[in-house]
Amino acid sequence: MRETSNSLVSKENSQQPKHFRGGKTKVMKKKLAAFALASALVIPTAVPAFAATPSDVVGKPVQSAVEELSALGIIQGYEDGTFKPDNAITRAELAKIIVIATGNETAASLMQNVKPSYKDVKANAWYTGYINVATTKGIIQGYNGNYRPSDNVKFEEVVAIIVRALGYQDKYLSGSWPYNVLLQADEIGLFGNIDIATGTLANRGIVAELTSNALGETLVGYDADGNQVDVDKNGKVITTGSPLVPLINKLGSSADKVLTAASLNSDKEVGLNGSREDTAASFFVTGGKKLAGLLGHTVSVLYNKDGDVLAVTDAQDAKNIVVATSDAINDVGDSTYIEVNDGAKEYEALSNLFIYDNTDSQANTYDLANGKEVVLQLNGDGKVQALLVNDWDANILLDEVVAYNDYSRVTTKNGGTFKVVSSSAISLNGEAVALADLKEDDVINVLVNDAGEAINVVATRNVVTGKLESVGLSGSDVTYQVGGKSYVAIQDGDDLTAANIGTEYTYYLNKDGKIVYYATASAVDNSQYAVVYEAPDAPVSRLIDGEVTLPVWYKVVYYSLKDSKKVTAYTKDADVITLDEKLIELKFDGDGNIALTPAQVSAAVNLNAAYEVNEVTATKLTVETGATDMNYVLNSNTIYLKVTVDGADTTVAVGAAADVSKGDEVVVKAEAGVAKYVVVTSDGDAADLPAVNGLLVSTKKVATSATESTYSAFIKVDGEDKEFAIDGDAYTTLNTLTKYDLVKLTDDGVANNALYEDVAHVARTAEAGTLTVDNATKTIVAAGANYVVTADTQIYVTQDTFDSVSVGSFTDLRVAADGTNYGTGANQYKVVVQASGVSYGGIAEAGVIIVKAY
Question: Where is the SLH domain (predicted)?
Answer without folding.
Answer: 49-112, 114-176
